[in-house]
Every structure is written in structure tokens, then in C-alpha cells.
Amino acid sequence: MSILDRFLLTDHVAVVTGAGRGLGAATAVALAEAGADVVISARTAAQLKEVASRIEAAGRRALVVPADLSDLAAVAGLAERAHAEFGHLDVVVNNVGGTIPNAFLDTDVEYLEDAFRFNVSTAHALSAAAVPLMLSDADDLSRQKAIVSITSMMGRTAARGYLAYGTAKAALAHWTRLAATDLSPRIRVNGIAVGSVLTSALEFVAGDAAMRSQMEDEAELGRLGEPEEIAAAVLYLASAAGAFITGKILEVDGGLQRPNLDLGLPPLWGGTVPAGN
């Protein structure tokens, strides 16, 4: 096997959530270009169809499953859909997630629990449904068995307004380490801590020239990332190129150490400052 062959996923089957645009779309196409058939899911059917056309242009098959991926039953059902359509399941990419920044006193318990559910529970629901199907033919060493979760550098650092998001992403990172221990050696489980990447999710700050400049300055490489750069990291972890890696969080963040982005949130509080003596 040549070194480039290690990056191939010939005749693998992958599930990618949040695949309608951004990181998920780039990842689904990258896996297809490496040889995988891909189940893609997100809320918007039109976006998925466009991604499916790119997968098919790469010579692979796409199964489009529009769904509300905050519904744990819906996200778990993707595993069986993949196995029923293609006959096996090899790679799961947990990409669904995200939480809007919020001031501390506007982050009530429900907001925090919603962030956890959307970023962590969805990953667990899909992975738990996928694992028995992946194990059913895991002795076939011709295909990699891997779970890759998209977490965030905010899970290892701090910035004002990211309490719910950062807590959830930190939990997803540690879920990755624990799941890797449980599933070793038959299924590898890794994550990617993503930095500031130019996707639609970042439009609310990247569209402001001053804020974009600030984000670029905070990264050692002096720029925002591209979705394809995250997709390449997913391919590395999912393929035989990363066959000796499990339980790790790969930081793909342009060298970002600690963000200090001013989101315009009120200092300290937000909401109404409580009265006191």
C-alpha cells in the first residue's frame, strides 16, 4: 500500500450529519472523492441535493435524508438507513451542532441543556445506533471503522458568551476519549477541534470587516480556515492514514490559542442585573 492509498476509502459507507453546507458538505464530498458512498442529512433538502450531485460527480452514491437532527430518533435512524441502503456502515461523522453565543444571565438551565443535547446527545444517539452495525462486519479488515466528531477549540479555551457552547463542545471532546476506550480496538473514535472557519455559521461575525480582521489576527496563520481543510482532517482520521490514532482530539485551528472576540455582549451580565446590597 502506497502512502496515498492509505487516504482512500474505497467502497466504504459513511454517514455525515449537518451535510447540507459548510463543514458537513465539504466532508461528504471529500469522503466521496476518497471512494466512499455517503448518507447525507440536514434540515434543508435543496442543499442536500446539491451536495449529492457533487458526490455523484465524484463517481459515488449518495443517499439524501432530510431531517431535523435535533430529533434524537431521527439522527439515530441514519445508521439503519445507511446499512439498509448500502449493506454495511464504516464511518460516522458527527457534525451536527452549534449554539448561539449568549450572556451569562441569559444562559438559563434550559439553554445549557439544549446546547448539550444538540452537540453531545445527537452524536451519542447516532454513534450508539451505528456501532452494532459497524461491528457486524468489523472483522473485515479491508475497511476502516471510525467515528469522527466535530468539536471546537472553544471546548479547550474561554471567551465571553460561549459558556453553553464551550461546555457542550468540551463534553463532546471527552465523550470522544471515553467512547474510544469503550470501542477499542475494533472502532476508532476521534474528534477535531475546529477553529474559525469561513462557513455560513460564521457569517454573523465574518461579515463585519473589523471582527473578521480580529479573528484573523488571533490565529497564528493569520487567516480563517476553509471547510475543505477540516474535511481533509476528517479523511485523515477516518482512513487508514490515521489507523494508529484513537481517543484523540486533532486541533485544526490555524494556531489559535485564546480568542478574545468582542461579540457586543454586555460586560459580565446580560439580561437584567439583579438588585443587591
UniProtKB/TrEMBL annotation:
Protein name (database record): SDR family oxidoreductase
PANTHER family hit by this protein: OXIDOREDUCTASE, SHORT-CHAIN DEHYDROGENASE/REDUCTASE FAMILY (AFU_ORTHOLOGUE AFUA_5G02870), SHORT-CHAIN DEHYDROGENASE_REDUCTASE FAMILY PROTEIN
Alphabetical list of NCBIfam families matching this protein: PRK07814.1 (NF005873)
Annotated family: Belongs to the short-chain dehydrogenases/reductases (SDR) family.
UniProt keyword list: Oxidoreductase
InterPro entries: NAD(P)-bd_dom_sf (IPR036291), Sc_DH/Rdtase_CS (IPR020904), SDR_fam (IPR002347)
Source organism per UniProt: Nocardioides dubius
Source taxon at top rank: Bacteria
